Amino acid sequence: METVLYPLVFKPILKERIWGGTKLKSQLNKEIPSSATGESWEISTVPGAVSVVANGDLAGISINDLIAKDAIAFLGKKVHARYGAEFPLLFKFLDAKEDLSIQLHPNDELAQKRHNSFGKTEMWYIMQADLDARIIVGFKEKSSPDEYLVHLENKTLPKILKEIPVKPGDVFFLETGTIHAIGAGIMLAEIQQTSDITYRIYDWDRVDDAGNSRELHIDLALEAINYNVVNAKKRYQQKPNESNGVVQCEYFTTKVIPLDGTMLCTKNGDSFTVYVCTEGEFSIVMDSLQSYSFRKGDTVLVPASITDFKLVGKATLLEIYIS
């Protein structure tokens, strides 16, 4: 029997973290397991954390099984040609009650050689930020392995890193090799390559309840770091009922839609499209007048075979696809 595809949401995969909090529940209605919940993985094919459909007739079926049934209809012609039956992106919400570790991710070449994995290019969209919240992205001035190691040894690494204050709506694009950390008091949406490879280099000398510090990856990171100054913040327009370009890279394209009313969408079948609702409520209306309703905190995957639909409502949406 043919599988009829429609706009899909998946059961959140919730992750407790030493730095997590409760905003994923209070602001995004996620059923968190504890008051230290740091991440909600919204769409994932990472082994051991594979998403399962939460809505409609396909509820309970894994994303991998849907792709296996008809990869082109689900992923799109171009995506399938490039990645086969692999879903190449990972979508998350993060709640940082405390500072995350200072970390970075390897590029495709290193990740493939060392971990048989994709690298991890990612972007952040700031959804909420407490007063004086900040992130760390890259070095203040061009650095070197020697300078970096001296500061690491002296526990003064943050002194040579760039701190940036943040507010809702800010976007940061983090290429592989960029040292970064999400600061306390920030909730954000993260879009990244399908990879769970992180090199942690400094963890603020934290220990867990048993007095153990988390593992660091000093040696692995040395070759992977970009020691140049980076400009990660992205500026973009916010024209209502239009897809305003924010990030375009070889791994994903992200646009911001300030939706107020109705917007017609026509796709070409080359890629699936994902809508992350960061504010408000909206519906996806298809040609047979089938309507699917969503709200803030929902991450919606529109399979590539659905090429004509309307977005209706009052919401802020991130629109993500692969060019």
TrEMBL record:
Pfam families: MPI_cupin_dom (PF21621), PMI_typeI_cat (PF20511). Binds 1 zinc ion per subunit. Residues 247-321 form the Mannose-6-phosphate isomerase cupin domain. Residues 11-116 form the Phosphomannose isomerase type I catalytic domain. Its cofactor is Zn(2+). CDD domains: cupin_PMI_type_I_N_bac. It comes from the Bacteria. Gene3D superfamilies: Jelly Rolls. This is Phosphohexomutase. It comes from Flavobacterium suncheonense GH29-5 = DSM 17707.
